[in-house]
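TICKET: design request
STATUS: open
ATTACHED STRUCTURE:
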């Protein structure tokens, strides 16, 4: 009983922080759906970590909505009802337009981009991404594949 306040603080749920790479990927899916992994990589200029797609699917924010009718039949990703609910949207029409997003840098401290969604393996970290602002440690620039 007397330790209750301390134990409660230990188990208090902290808000999850997401990496810039995860949020960029989610934004691309939301604004350009249906979209393939290759199209996301093309826009971002870096290869997309499988853990980002997996995390977004586990959160039920994106799902496979079909497959592109080209060789390899790549999966097409789209957002879910859970995505709309989490971000308090009734429809995708309520997403802000590009003109409404005036200063992304002012949003960065508020959204806390720094912490990755999942801990990166030591083997995946390195100096190769230091020159890429906002690059996730598990990503490789597309031109280095």
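STATUS: resolved
RESOLUTION: sequence designed for all positions
ATTACHED SEQUENCE:
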């Amino acid at each position: 009983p007397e330790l209750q306040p301390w134990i409660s603080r230990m188990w208090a749920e902290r808000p999850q922080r997401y990496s810039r790479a995860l949020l960029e990927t989610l934004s691309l899916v939301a604004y350009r759906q249906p979209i393939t992994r290759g199209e996301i990589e093309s826009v971002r200029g870096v290869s997309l970590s499988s853990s980002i797609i997996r995390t977004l699917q586990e959160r039920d924010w994106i799902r496979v909505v079909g497959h592109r009718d080209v060789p390899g039949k790549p999966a097409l990703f789209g957002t879910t009802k859970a995505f709309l609910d989490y971000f308090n949207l009734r429809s995708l029409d309520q997403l802000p337009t590009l003109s409404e997003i005036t200063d992304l840098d002012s949003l960065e401290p508020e959204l806390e981009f720094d912490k990755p969604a999942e801990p990166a393996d030591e083997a995946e970290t390195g100096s190769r991404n230091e020159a890429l602002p906002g690059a996730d440690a598990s990503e490789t620039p597309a031109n280095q594949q």
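CLOSING REMARK: The radius of gyration is 18 Å. The chain has a mean pLDDT of 77.
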